[in-house]
Amino acid sequence: MEHTLTVAELADLLGRLLDEAFPYGLWVEGEIANYTEGRNGMRWFDLVEPAPEAGRAPVARVAVVLFDDARRRVNALLRRHGGAVKMGDGVRIRIQAAVAFYAPQGRLQLRMTTIDPSYTIARLAADKEAVLRRLRAEGLTELNRRLPLPVLPGRVGLVTARDSAAAADVHRVFANAGYGVTLVECDALVQGADAPRSLVAALDAVTAADVDLVLVVRGGGARTDLAAFDHETVARAIAACPVPVVTGIGHEIDESVADLVAHTARATPTAAAEFVVSVIAEARGRLDDAVARIGPAARRTLDTATARLDGHHRRLGHRGDVLAQRHRHELDGRARRLVRVAATADVRAASHLDHLADRLARRSLSWVAGADRRLTHGSATLAARAERRLAAARRHLDAVDLRRRALDPVRLLDRGWSITRRGDGTVVRSTGQVTPGESVTTILADGTLTGTIEAVHPRRTPGADTEDEQ
Question: Fewer CB within 10 Å: C terminus or N terminus of the chain?
Answer without folding.
Answer: N
